[in-house]
TrEMBL record:
Signal peptide: none annotated. It comes from the Bacteria. It comes from Endozoicomonas euniceicola. This is Transcriptional regulator. InterPro entries: Antitox_HigA (IPR039060), Lambda_DNA-bd_dom_sf (IPR010982).
């Protein structure tokens, strides 16, 4: 069976079934190579048709604050003075690129969540 682009849901389902049957294929074999190509095609299809539903930036920050037990004061090194932190958390001020970079670096919040358009 030839490998072809995944254009429809049926193509996608078929590729997933074939990937499942090839999961135990040894790397470097023709089956292993086929598995690699199919996985690449499926990843591309999913990226185009099944985007992740990322939280908005403020929700991502609040989630990390809750996880880490952080207060608004703890965000000052990343966002600025306390009043600026509250403006961001209350959606009165957008994040700047510098804030996004610091939040990503210091708290490990995915940059994709921080750059998403606010709700």
């Amino acid at each position: 069976m030839d490998i072809k682009p995944i254009k429809t849901t049926e193509d996608y389902q078929s590729a997933l079934k074939e990937i499942e049957s090839l999961m135990m294929a040894e790397p470097g074999t023709s089956e292993g190579d086929r598995l690699d190509v199919l996985v690449t095609l499926v990843e591309d299809y999913e990226r185009r048709h099944c985007p992740l539903d990322l939280p908005d930036p403020v929700a991502a920050i609040q989630f990390r604050m809750e996880q880490e037990g952080l207060s608004a004061k703890d965000l000052e090194p990343m966002i600025g003075k306390r009043n600026r932190v509250y403006e961001v958390l209350n959606r009165k001020r957008p994040l700047t690129l510098k804030m996004i970079w610091r939040l990503h670096q210091m708290l490990g919040i995915p940059a994709e969540s921080l750059i998403k358009q606010p709700l």
